[in-house]
Amino acid sequence: MPLLEIRDLIVLYGEIEALRGVSLTVEEGQVVTLLGANGAGKSTTLRAISGLARPAAGEIVFDGKSIAGLGPEAIVRLGISHVPEGRRIFPGLTVKENIMLGASNRRVAKSELSREADAMFDLFPDIRQFSNSLGWTLSGGQLQMVAVARGLMAKPRLLLLDEPSLGLAPVIVQAVFRIISQIRQNTTVLLVEQNARMGLSVADHGYVLETGRIVLGGKPDELWGNEAIAAAYLGGHAKVTA
Ligand SMILES: Nc1ncnc2c1ncn2[C@@H]1O[C@H](COP(=O)(O)OP(=O)(O)OP(=O)(O)O)[C@@H](O)[C@H]1O
Ligand SMILES: [Mg+2]
C-alpha cells in the first residue's frame, strides 16, 4: 500500500479549475518530485493534501485512510507536514522559537522540544548562530532552512516541500538539496520544483503537471530525455507519451 495515493483530484477556485483530475502515488521512503510551469497546479496539489484547499472531487488516501475534506489540524496530526511557498517566518520570535512552532501537533514536553530544536541545527548549521536572537536578519536561503526545520519538527511521515529552492543563489540551492537528501533517509518527501534538474536529482519518481493535469510520470532517468519535460519548461504543451 502506498503511503499517499491521490485519485482523480479536482480543485476549483471559483470558476478556475486548478486541478482537473490529478492522480499520483507516493511510496513510503521515497522522494517524489512534482514538476511543472507557473500556474500548473503544483501548490494546489500540496494544499489539497494538507487540507488548505478543499477538493471538489477525487480521493486522497494517506496510510490507507481517506483524508480529503479533513481540516489542516487533523491532517497535521496524521503526520503530514507542509512547508508552503514563501517562508512565513515570524519576525517577533527567535529562530529557535520559529522552529519549535512546527511541533504544535505533538504532545511533548517543552524541554524535549527545545532539545530537538537544538538538534535541528546539526542539519542546518548555517542558522545555528541566529538560534536565540531576536531582530535577526536572515537571507532567503537561511529563511528557507528555518521553514524546512520547522516542517521537520512535526516529525512527519510525509513532508510536503513547495519550491524550497525558489529565489536562492545556486550555491544555496545546492545546500538545500543536500539537506533534502539527508531528510530522505527517514522521511517520505513530496517535493514541488520548477528546477527540473535539481528536483529530479533527489527523486525516486517524478511527475509533470500541466494546467491541472499530470501529463507524464516516471523514474528520473525515464523523464530525462523526454521532449515533454523540455516542452513543459519552455511553456509549450507537453505531449502525452505514456
Ligand atoms: N487563491 C486562489 N484563487 C484563485 N485562483 C488561484 C488561487 N491560487 C491559485 N489559483 C490558480 O490556480 C492555478 C494553479 O495555481 P498553483 O498555485 O497551484 O500553481 P503552481 O503550479 O504552484 O504555480 P507556481 O509555480 O507559480 O507556484 C493557477 O491558474 C492559479 O492562478
Ligand atoms: Mg506554487
UniProtKB/TrEMBL annotation:
SUPFAM superfamilies: P-loop containing nucleoside triphosphate hydrolases (SSF52540). SMART domains: AAA (SM00382). Keywords: Amino-acid transport, ATP-binding, Nucleotide-binding, Transport. Transmembrane segments: none annotated. The keyword Ubl conjugation does not apply. GO terms for biological process: L-amino acid transport. Pfam families: ABC_tran. One of its GO terms (molecular function) is ATP hydrolysis activity. Residues 4-236 form the ABC transporter domain. It comes from the Bacteria. Involved in beta-(1-->2)glucan export. Transmembrane domains (TMD) form a pore in the inner membrane and the ATP-binding domain (NBD) is responsible for energy generation. Belongs to the ABC transporter superfamily. This is Amino acid/amide ABC transporter ATP-binding protein 2, HAAT family.
